[in-house]
Amino acid sequence: MPLPRTVETMARRWLLTLILLVVAIVAAVTGRTVLFVIMVLFALAASPLAFPTSIPAAEAQARSAADGKPIVYWRPGCPFCLRLRTTLAFQSRRLHWVDIWKDPAAAAAVRAVADGNETVPTVILRGEPHVNPNPTWLRAAIRAR
User: Fold this and answer.
1) Of the candidate ranges 9-18, 27-36, 44-53, 136-145, the one whose mean pLDDT is the lowest
2) Do 83 and 39 fall within a single domain?
3) Which residues are in the Glutaredoxin domain (predicted)?
4) Distance from C-alpha of 27 to C-alpha of 93, rounded to nearest angstrom
5) What is the pLDDT of residue 140?
């Protein structure tokens, strides 16, 4: 019997975090304190907790039309999304974040601009899609707004 969609999505969102925590526990049990700390930090960074609250794609599009803020389509565990998030640092609150694993419409929006692939991060800036943009370029574009 397949899992309900919400349980499946929740499991997928937390899988990398759980794997990293298991590695951290093994490291702790075997006395590798430094590895334990590193794995816990990686687990926190890879978790959905490292990102601003995700909103549905339709809401992000409406808000973006009203306030002009860019939309970032992302997914938990994506190293490129994490790189973007950490590069933007506190400026990340100046964007609308949409988790494509939470919202099928968001995944469809990404596929529409990424040649049918769910390539993230995909950023919509001033109505123009940018698939996996350079984080430094995006930070400068946000500051220039």
Assistant:
1) 44-53
2) no
3) 72-128
4) 34
5) 92
Phi, psi at 99, each rounded to 5°: -85, 115
Distances (CA, A) of 48 to 29, 31, 101: 26, 28, 11
Is-contact 95 68, C-beta < 8 A? no
Residue 81 CA to residue 145 CA, distance in Å, equals: 21
What is the reported pTM? 0.71
Q: 34-81 pLDDT, tens per residue?
A: 999 999 988 887 777 766 778 999 999 999 999 999 999 999 878 899
Q: What separation in angstroms does the CA of 101 have from each of 23, 63, 107, 134?
A: 25, 20, 7, 22
Q: What range does the domain containing 94 cover?
A: 51-144
78, 134: one domain:
yes
